[in-house]
Amino acid sequence: MTDHFAGDPRTNHERMLAGDLYIADDPQIIEAQKRAVRLAARYLAAYAEDPDAARPLLAELLGGLGEGAHIRPPLYVDYGSYLTVGEDTFVNYNLTALDVAPITIGRDCQIGPNVQLLTPTHPVEPEPRRDKLEAARPITIGDNVWLGGGAIVLAGVTIGDNSVIGAGAVVTKDVPADVVAVGNPARVIRSI
After folding, report:
1. Whether the Cβ atoms of residue 134 and residue 156 lie closer than 8 Å to each other
2. Residues 6 or more apart in contact with residue 103 via CB below 8 angstroms
3. Which residue, of 10, 22, 96, 149, has the greatest Cβ tally within 10 A?
4. What string of DSSP letters covers 73-99?
5. What is the pTM of this model?
6. Known catalytic residue: 4?
7. pLDDT single digits (tens) 17-76
């Protein structure tokens, strides 16, 4: 069996946070994921009774939650603690935010239903046990950005302020500020 980390004393969790290759079944990583699942489930149940009373659970789950930000559950995260949502941002149902690397959503954003923000990556070249390795790159969404329903934003992407991403778009590379981008892969079709 190949030792991918010979000479590297870091834990898999430390490698993950650095954006380097790591093995996701590390016990420390698994425990953090379990915490996130428990908090997300508690938030969903509490929200059904009283959305305002559920907010402290959401704040405990996330790395940052701006004043006036609102997230409709269900919310799916790997950890939650690496997801930051800016003030007055609205997130509709079924956000999947795989926050293996930091995900930053700016202020005054509108996120449609079923949006996916996906920071994990993996090697594409075959090698024994290479299928067990992952890495991640951050996602940054600027201020006053609109993401249409079903949009997918991939690892390493930055979306500039005041931009609109069309419903169902797959964003594979950076999008500048003040544009509309649509399609798969997403492409800029006009300035705003």
Report:
1. no
2. 82, 83, 84, 97, 117, 119, 138, 139, 140, 141
3. 22
4. SPEEES-STTEEE-TT-EE-S-EEEE-
5. 0.93
6. no
7. 888 888 888 898 999 999 999 999 999 999 999 999 999 999 999 999 999 999 999 999
